[in-house]
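Job type: complex structure
Entries:
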Amino acid sequence: MNNLPVEISFWQLLLGLVFIFIAQITSLLYHLGLNRDITVGTIRTFAQLFLMGYVLTFIFQLENVWLTLLVFSIMVISASFIVKGRVREKRIPYLLPTILTMFISYFATAFFVSGIIIGVDPWWEPRYFLPFGGMVIGNSMSALAIAIERLFSEMRQQKNMIEARLCLGANYKEASAEMLRNAISAGMIPSINAMMGVGLVFIPGMMAGQVLAGADPLQAVRYQIVIMLMLVGSTAMTSFITIRIIRKRCFGRGEELLLSLSR
Amino acid sequence: MEPLLTIEHLWFSFSPTGAPLFEELDLRVETGDFVLLRGVSGSGKSTLLRLICRLQPFSKGRILFKGVPVDALKPPELRRQVLYVAQIPSMIDDTVKANLLFPFSFSVNSDKQAPDDHELIRMLSDFYLQDITLQQPALNLSVGQQQRVALMRALLQQPEILLLDEPTSALDADSAAMVFSIIETLNREKGMTIICVTHSDYRPETVEPDLYILKNRTFHRL
């Protein structure tokens, strides 16, 4: 049996556009107004993934630690701006602590998995470090956006209760403890739910990729388990640190609530 | 002897470039005073109370509590002594008892002993709440009853000054009369220092207040 995946030719790739055709027809029939988005999304998928393919090929060939870390940093900064785009609060400055926390915790996670658990030598071997980093960043980014938005929305909704607690002698941590807990758990729940459903209701992307590439399914499973655990840990770590820093920034020097009610 | 609360040359604006809400505002409050501040909506009465307990920062002037600038005190220490009660009472989704006692879990109150049920039940009747029980869900109470629970909760912290922000504006006439009666009794019998803002014509019947009107960005004594 040949373990190498069947190659996809250029024409076979174009045949995949049949699925986009179905989506476009659906949008037209029901006046969904999504045709432009579907077209742009398709073009971006082709362009961004091919670009990534060339960049990865280049990086894998060069095998340079600084270049690997540069690409990793660009991924983190891009992710933090995507998080910023999903959060509506404009008054509290949260971008810098978010970038720093994301960088430190994602780096620590990717290093731990690549260098210690799997034992890649050197630890920054781009073929391992960048895909792990990418998976951590991609998953935790969504979790972080959910957690930050939840924190701000709960603090806005419960402004009167927070101030009532402050007036009764609570410090800012005591006044907002409930909102902090809710925000962190809102960020963590998707990755915990993913652990419940994995293997039963979906075959995760990384494992599917490895199996398609001819890897032993039991080896692919081991990789996937490490990834799932890594995602829960990195989500918890990033949410916990970032939300605590942002929560502090919601209060002024007099421990007064700075958050504006309007968005 | 230092007054309990002193406001000196207070200047406040919501934005650095906007027109000031107050200019050169001065006030002295002695222990046991009942200060009643009147003014139309938007004149800054509520904002003034929020500045005193640092719920909002101010840039010019000084506010002193017992001679010490309020921004030199730790906010929780200041706020448990100069206690602000908001216009709309905030209740947690729990029993009346839990609502009365949750401030005792704050670190600033760790040296205080929470009152027992007998004490709380006795206080409920002082606050015209003899018809409710400690185990009743607080969110099921009327706004008037919630306001009295909020006042009782504030009193349990034994503050030195009570800042009352339009305490009866959301209440019907009967509930409002009960709240005013409680406030007057606190001042008259327990010597509690009270600063109350209102836009109504309320005039205490059993105590003699220091009456001010906030107009044209400053106080006018009536």
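Summary: Chain A touches chain B at residues 160-161, 163-171, 174, 252-257 (CB under 8 Å). The first helix of chain A runs from residue 10 to 15.
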